Amino acid sequence: MAHTTRIRSAALGLVTVLMAALPSVTSIPATSAAETDALNIGFNGSLVGTTAYTTAGSEIMRGMAHRADGAEAQDPTVGVRLGGGRQGIIFDASTLNLGDGSTATTGFIAEVKFTPAATQGSLATLFAAGGGLQVRYQDGLLRYGYDSFTDGSWVSNTQTVRVPAAGTEHAFSLQYLPGTTGTRLVAYLDGVAQPEVTSPDPASLNPDLRSRFGFGNDVHPQALTRGFTGSLRQVRVAPGTATFETSNFELQPSGPTTPPEQPCEPKTYEPANTIPVTATDCAANLVKAASALRPTEQQWAWQEHNLSAFIHFGINTFYNQEWGHGTEDPAKFNPTGPVDTDAW
């Protein structure tokens, strides 16, 4: 009996040492809003097939989280690895309903800690809710917002930021605030407030998806191949509050945060009267581009007259745009009726 006891003690000691040697994924703090959170998991538990997740420790799950595809790989060093395509983590909430009709009239908070890969698929989705709200990679930027049905037409209400650096862990948080006078979407990335999305109408909602949230993929039936490539360390969903407070976001770094410097590959610009730039150009290159701008002979002659004018009715009217780009064709200026300038 003593011999058996010594073997069991040695085995237990070995297990303890091995568990201590494993890197920790994410410990959910005891101060987490356990009374209200619908989901707050750091993947310390176990993903079971494509149907379930079993929580561990202080993790919170009111509803069911599960794999979307089955190939999502749990990794104690990073959380869950996702390879794009149909992969992702789906959460069906049991205590949070975004609305009973075709619009999302209930506010909510969603947060994710993630590490992106350098290459993302077309419209790779980091987060989605209800079929009408997404955070995704698009046109070389990270785009977030929602679709709404306004005055009989579909409207895409979005903002964009530079894509977060690959291979580095980031935190993205959003709060959706529908109201009687309009709808707001507040977003933070790595402790920094991002441009708000606002619209007069709430986000569209697929009634079959009113309690469904997606991390690393979309939830809309026609968009289930827009998987994110990288890893998810922690995800959170909670009911919204009437107003936004920074304390509503638990996964954002605390204290003032300076946006990380983006890598900048120097570019050379030839002098010209128009120089194309993109939203991903770094500040140093934008300064170079601005410094290389030169007026045409006609533009220079106009400037020599020291004249200025602000014309509401001009070439932009015929392009149906507010601001021109300097490349419009003057021949397109073609009023079809009498113009009464005195009435202006």
Keywords for this structure?
single chain, 344 residues, mainly beta, Jelly Rolls, 2 domains, seven-stranded antiparallel beta sheet, 3 helices, 19 strands, globular, disordered N terminus
Could you explain how this protein is built, in words?
It is a single chain. Helix content is 11%, strand content 32%. The protein is mostly beta strands and 344 residues long. The chain folds into two domains: 23-248, Sandwich (Jelly Rolls), CATH 2.60.120.200; 283-343, no CATH class. The strands form three sheets. Strands 1, 4, 6, 7, 9, 14, 15, 16, 17 and 19 form a ten-stranded antiparallel β-sheet that branches. A hairpin with a 2-residue loop joins strand 11 (133-138) and strand 12. The chain is globular, with a radius of gyration of 26 Å. The chain starts with a helix and ends in a 40-residue tail after the last helix. Mean pLDDT is 86; it is low at 1-25. This is Alpha-L-fucosidase. It comes from Knoellia remsis. Keywords: Signal.
Topology:
Elements: H1 2-21, E1 39-41, E2 46-48, E3 52-54, E4 60-61, E5 63-67, E6 73-75, E7 79-85, E8 89-93, E9 108-116, E10 125-129, E11 133-138, E12 141-150, E13 153-162, E14 170-179, E15 182-189, E16 192-193, E17 197-199, E18 212-215, E19 227-239, H2 283-291, H3 297-304
Antiparallel strand pairs: 1-4, 1-19, 2-3, 5-8, 6-7, 7-19, 8-18, 9-14, 9-19, 10-11, 10-18, 11-12, 12-13, 14-15, 15-16, 15-17
